[in-house]
Amino acid sequence: MIIAFLKRRWWLTSNRILPTLGFALLLPVVLHLFINFPMRKLELMQDPALNPEHWILPGLLCMIMIISLIPSLFRDLFDLRIHRNTLAPLSIAPLSNQQIIRGFLFTAMIESLVFALVGMLVFWLLMDSQLELIQYAIMIPYILLFAALIGNIIISFSLLTDRSSVFLFLVLTATVIIMFGSELFIDLSLFPRSIGTILRYFPTGQILHGLRQVIFSGEFNIVVTAVPLAITILLTFINGELLKRKMDQ
Amino acid sequence: MEASITLKKVGKLLNERTILAGLSFGIEKGSLVAVIGDSDSEKSMLLRILAGFDMPEYGSVYIHGIDVSSKKKDIRMEIGYMPQECDLEPWLTVRQNIQFIGALYHVDKRTRNKRIDTIGDLLALHDDLDTPVIRLTIGVLKRAMLLRALIHDPTVLILDNPSNSLDPRSKELIWNVLEQLRGSKTIVYVSKSYSEVENYHDRILLLEEGKVVLDGDIQKLVKNAEGLHRFSFEFENPSKALVVRLMAIPNLISSEMMGNNFVCYGTDLKIISEILDISNKTALTNIDIKKFGLPEIVESQKLQDFEE
Q1: Rounded CA gap, A118 and A24, in Å?
Q2: Strands, E, within chain B: which ranges?
Q3: Which residues does chain A have within 8 Å of residue B90's beta carbon, measured at their own beta carbons?
Q4: Burial (0-12, 13-18, 19+ Cβ within 10 Å), B237
Q5: Predicted pLDDT of residue A240
Q6: What is the count of residue pairs from A and B with beta carbons less than 8 Å apart?
Q7: Nearest-angstrom CA–CA distance, B285 and B233
Q8: Do the chains contact at A4 and B103, CB–CB below 8 Å?
Q9: Phi and psi at residue A3, in whole multiples of 5°?
Q10: Per the CB 3.0–4.6 Å rule, which of A1, A127, B58, B129 could disulfide with B95?
């Protein structure tokens, strides 16, 4: 079943390969120019020994994943559902609503991972100093978990709304909150203490926190990985039920 | 004959309004069943329930004797559905759309390719299989949707207006394929075209306000109306004496004056000469003679319901 969804995703990508490649290469360059450059001059990290470019890299990769997940999931679960009714033939195929959600989510995650890997390569070329290969490798499962969580949030917005204006409002608001409140680019210690304490419990921020702990301090924190993972599994289940309700089944 | 589809007291509510009311009927295996009725008769809702899109609020639907609510996955393998509106993915080609759905129905790649080629040829789709859906006309898309509905070789085909607003060639191609499948697959379809229904059916169901009000084949439905014609003669200022004489013509099944129009039903075409003889001094402004067919049966049923 997943193979069928992956093939579909590949067909969609290969039918527009040049714009996709251009976007995949341009996005990390843009992020490097507009985020990495100014951030180099700001002392945002608690640890002054840490290279700001290294600290910010996981955040940039997560940003690439958010940007690549939104159009893909919006298209599959909002646009095509509302305007083309293409979810209908899937809803009467011999697979459950949970399987449909997992199919769309998994393939969107794989696509966004490819974008992130291209981003890694571009950042590797653009950055003054590079991380070790093992540090790049450790990032992959964390950013996949991040993509699964964000993907589920986007799927929920896609299924809960029937108007593109409402979807855009929700997704843009969520993106801003995640960008600034999940340690993508800004360390939580820069927030007033009370707000910083609340933000520390954000599952998206926990993933980034856990990732930085592993690659910069070598400490693996099971809690900051298990909690977002549990929330992701729960959200996937809820989205399956939402789809069932949306398809009136 | 073995029943392929059985409905037992199936009812559907929408916003607390009953839109399908206690439907009970069976459809024989391999038969071609046409569902007709007004736009508010909920024909499409009936098809949606049969296809598994919607579940009834009460009652049960059985496909090959299995309750659709109990073994959903098994039942879905048996059903092919073609909706009225195009629901193919616009940025994929026809082949990719069909390959994707085929894979979800666990049809292996070799069989999928073989079916795409064989049925695609019958539907004259070979030149359009590798074109993105967004660039194709509605005639090609409908044929592609029929091919998609057949990719997993279902035993039951549910078709919502399969040839509605299509060019004559596409209509012909679609019906040629359906005619070939007749007998081997149970086909239930909704149509707005009475001539199409008259040509292609083993059985006709007339749905009115969520109820089956007529059920049978065209011969059965017009059995009592064999050779029956509807005559309409419009006169310029008909006199009372003329009306009395017209009403007295023997062998009329029913007759009435509607303004200046004398409308009657009968099987004997001699009625025309009799009316012309009687009305020789009164100017006739219009004559309309219709053989009784499916549209008239539907109309007369509606009139009967209204009078009741």
Answers
A1: 7
A2: 3-14, 17-28, 32-37, 58-63, 66-67, 79-82, 156-160, 186-190, 203-208, 211-216, 229-235, 254-258, 261-266, 284-291
A3: 84
A4: exposed
A5: 93
A6: 72
A7: 8
A8: yes
A9: -60, -40
A10: B129
Interface contact B14, partner A, CB < 8 A = no
Of B53, B76, B87, the CB nearest to A84: B87
Are A152 and A236 a contacting pair, CB within 8 Å? yes
Question: Does the distance separating the beta carbons of B103 and A11 come in below 8 Å?
Answer: no
Which residues lie below 8 Å from residue B136, measured CB to CB, with a gap of 6+? B94, B128, B144
Question: For A81, which residue in chain B has the nearest alpha carbon?
Answer: B87
pLDDT of residue B300: 65
ipTM of the complex: 0.86
Sorted by sequence, the CB contacts under 8 Å of residue A17 that are 6+ apart come out as none
Count H helices and E strands in chain B, helices first. Answer: 11, 14
B152: closest CA of chain A, how far (Å): 10
Higher pLDDT, B253 or A197: A197
CB distance B271 to B252 below 8 Å: yes
Dihedral sign for Cα atoms in the order B172, B173, B176, B178:
negative
**CB pair distance less than 8 Å for B53 and A248:** yes
Q: Do B105 and A94 touch (CB under 8 A)?
A: yes
Residues B19-38: pLDDT tens digits? 788 888 888 888 999 988 87
A80 → chain B, closest CA residue = B89
Search chain B and give the residue with CA nearest A87. Answer: B87
DSSP 8-state symbol, B182: B
Distance CA B116, CA B112 (A): 6
Q: What is the DSSP letter of A76?
A: I
Burial of B283 (0-12, 13-18, 19+ CB in 10 A): exposed
Report d(CA B274, CA B258) in Å as an integer.
19
Interatomic CA distance for residues B212 and B215, integer angstroms? 7
What is the maximum alpha-carbon separation in chain A?
Answer: 57
**Positive or negative: CA dihedral B243, B244, B249, B250:** positive
Residues (pLDDT < 70) of chain B are: 1, 40-41, 219-226, 281, 299-308
Cβ–Cβ under 8 Å, residues B186 and B157: yes
Between B54, B92, B101, which is nearest A93 by CB? Answer: B101
Tell me whether A233 touches chain B (CB under 8 Å): no
pLDDT per residue over B158-215, tens digit each? 999 888 878 888 989 999 999 999 889 999 999 888 778 878 888 888 888 778 877 7
* Optimal mutation site among B61, B77, B87, interface A, most CBs of chain A within 10 A: B87
Give the count of beta carbons closer than 10 Å to the beta carbon of residue A99.
Answer: 17
Q: Which two tokens stand for residue A201?
A: 């419990």
- From chain A residues 76-95, the ones with a CB under 8 A of any chain B CB are 80, 84-86, 88-95
Q: Is B58 helix (H, G, I), strand (E, B) or coil?
A: strand
Q: Give the ranges where A127-192 is alpha helix by DSSP (H).
A: 133-160, 164-181
DSSP helix/strand/coil, B89: coil
